[in-house]
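quick one, 173 residues, struct below
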Amino acid sequence: MAAQQSNRRSIGLVDIGAALAVVLAAVGVIWSPKLSGAVAKATGALKPITVTVDVRGIPAADPAALIAAAKQKGSLNIVIRNQPHGSVTVKDVTPLPRRISTITPAGRVITVDDPNQRVFSTLDARFLLQGQGQITKEGVEFGGQGIKVGTPIELDDNQFRVSGTVTSLKVGS
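---
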């Protein structure tokens, strides 16, 4: 008598591993920051956020040219905690004067412009940036990254990459 062939299939460890990989990939796509940002945009959860970033003490041969270039381009790439957020609009860039204080022999405190700026120029500026963000229970989120006053941020352009600190957040236009 001929051996009967079984049509039953058994599920092996490889099959379970493949199914688990597919499920994990689907979960990763659903919870990705870009997709959640697209969902937030579609549902109207994104709001205009104005962020003020102060950049202090960055050595630069011509800080005025960097400020002018940022104003002229009108947008900068923003990096929050080493994660690229995307592009934000530059509303304004204001140079911040570098000042020093000293005490006179008469006991008065005077404040004057730093004379070293003529020799050792540095970029000291306040960037006023506009972008889209979500308001969550933890605060303001840009591209899935929470930001607050004091958060270090990098501003990136084709001419420079500088580090600054968030000094103000304003929701709305």
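The chain has a mean pLDDT of 82.
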